[in-house]
Predict the structure.
Amino acid sequence: MLSLSMPQDFQNHLSNIVSSIDAELDRLLTAQLSAGEIERPENLVAAMRHGVLNGGKRLRPFLVIEVGALFDASLQETLQTGCALECLHSYSLVHDDLPAMDDDDLRRGQPTVHKAFDEATAILAGDALLTFAFDILSSSKCHPSAEVRCELVSLMSRAAGQGGMIGGQVQDIEAETSTPSADQILSLQSMKTGALIRFACEAGAVVGNAPSKDRNRMVEFGKTIGLAFQLADDLLDVTSSSAEMGKRVGKDAEQGKGTLVSLYGVEKTRVLMNDNLSHAEALLQPFGSKADILRETARFVVERSN
Amino acid sequence: MLSLSMPQDFQNHLSNIVSSIDAELDRLLTAQLSAGEIERPENLVAAMRHGVLNGGKRLRPFLVIEVGALFDASLQETLQTGCALECLHSYSLVHDDLPAMDDDDLRRGQPTVHKAFDEATAILAGDALLTFAFDILSSSKCHPSAEVRCELVSLMSRAAGQGGMIGGQVQDIEAETSTPSADQILSLQSMKTGALIRFACEAGAVVGNAPSKDRNRMVEFGKTIGLAFQLADDLLDVTSSSAEMGKRVGKDAEQGKGTLVSLYGVEKTRVLMNDNLSHAEALLQPFGSKADILRETARFVVERSN
């Protein structure tokens, strides 16, 4: 087995997998028809592509694939679940950027979908990406067992829904006009950002048919790096520049949004983030060197500069 | 078997089934938690309920249930698929009513979701309803066979997606600034409105494990009454009042929207609608009196006053 203890090896591996993800997303997001469809309107497909094929980090599909690899799942299968999840994640960004929501003009250095197209198209492109995520997940290419595919549909809809990502987003909006406690911030972030990262890790274990002890460990791993990811994001919002991030920064403070950085300060937040990194590494310990890529992924999550 | 040749019997049956649908939607749309969820934010659940529990006709779930009954599917199962479909249909109305889309203040005589709440909440409530539809469909309450549930997820995502309802909606917006031909209007309406009605009929056959010949017949039945439904809608838009419809009328003409009524006139449209009704009745012929309710349903679709 390839040893990936060197960060350069990890970087190469990451960029190879990201290329596979981008190529598959490109293939999926075409005007090609499925049974019973009209021609997919060109402008809609273009808006969906704009929202997805934009140089994203692909962290969520990468996690599905690497957790899957830990349990010897085939890349062909985890790639499908990963792409479904990336379509879903991308829809959430397209809708978050809308004027009625965060009202952002820039995403990854490019105009947001409602800026490049228009607001109605951005709403519909987001809806179509969310819907398409479930189309991908229900295909037998995703997994030969319909039981597994149904479980993925169920887990993803809960991670993304009213008691998951969307619920967290609503709490986040409500937090703008209140003074949330640290626990409330942790809870809302755990759903708004954490739920999909947890799902990514659990989905890899489900596709790889992991025993329930290992599956639970992967859910915990996802929970831990999800929190580390959010803490890193909040830190980057106060310490980095717009040019590095490819989007507006400093906006948490500007919107008076309570984050753990605003409650704890930069130093204590950094300590908490590193504690989570250590916990994530401890969770991987039983898997030995087979988990090297996931170890590097956890480090990448906290050390990234954008 | 209950003979339902009398319209009064049909009305009673319809209102009994609609009560069951409303009760199940009410039960599904509560703050009750699923595994891995945070508390569902109260305001979000309230907005979702406002978008769904509003006295809708429930035509789509009724079709799932009645086509299912033709193949002896259990009401318990078809009710779940029907409620999933109604959540999906309701999300599409919540998003269609948004200021960036149709900008409607009134729906079924009540303020639209973005009027009763706000725009961000309406976008998120729509997203949550769409997501929840797949949650409902993936549950074993929907059907004991995961193969069947996966097929329902796949069919619904295609009926609702870029090459289905959303694609039709995009074409509809594009048609506002062009002069579509009759074929183009038929095609876009067949997706915008028709796709979910076709899915309703196909889903009933799938849940009832119908042989493929009968299933295809039900798809054709759905296609036919879907078109009749749309023609009735376009006719109502020119002939009825806001009070009867519970929403703004005359807006097709106001928006310069090409409909078959504007191309063909009221009389020819009415003839076309009745031709479709006759075709729908012919499709039910092999099922004898067991299809009486579906026969009445087809008549109800064209004879309704709102």
